[in-house]
Amino acid sequence: MPDKKNIINQKELAEIISSQNDFGLNKRETEGLIKKIIETIINQLGKGKTVKLTSFGTFSVKNRYARGGVDPRNPGKRINIPDWKEIKGCFKGKTLGSFWCP
């Protein structure tokens, strides 16, 4: 778990961007833009599309199939794990190098 001092939340990110931007957006407008970008990425992933942001990373949805498992509270008991979808992210590009890509 990262140290809380090293975590930047959405509002802090908007403040940093608005203080450096050349677009004439204030903090509130920048935060709205960040929210819209995140919302759009999530909506496109929900439609089964892959989102590629050049020089940053690629996001996609992976189907995890149902399988059997063991109950961690009762190791002798078998359980069924249902199928689900998860978001996979691969962060790399010219600016990040091969930063993180599972």
Number of β-strand runs: 6
* C-alpha Rg (nearest Å): 19 Å
Query: So what's the overall shape?
Result: elongated
Report the portion of residues in β strands. 35-45%
Q: What summary fits the major beta sheet?
A: 4 strands, antiparallel
Structural class: alpha+beta
- Topology as a string of helices (H) and strands (E): HHEEEEEE
Tally of individual helices: 2
What distance separates the N and C termini?
18 Å
Unreliable runs, pLDDT <50, ≥5 residues?
Answer: none
Mean pLDDT: 83
- Biggest sheet strand order reads 1-2-5-6
Whole-number total of structural domains:
2
Give the % helix.
25-40%
What do these coordinates show?
This protein folds into two domains: 8-47; 50-102, no CATH class. The mean pLDDT is 83. β5 and β6 (97-100) form a beta hairpin. It is an alpha+beta fold. The two termini are 18 Å apart. The protein has helices spanning 10-20, 27-46, and strands at residues 51-53, 57-64, 67-71, 74-81, 84-93, 97-100. Helices cover 30% and strands 37% of the residues. The protein is elongated. The chain has a four-stranded antiparallel sheet with strand order 1-2-5-6. The protein has a two-stranded antiparallel ribbon with strand order 3-4. It has two helices and six strands, in the order ααββββββ. α1 (10-20) packs across α2 (27-46).
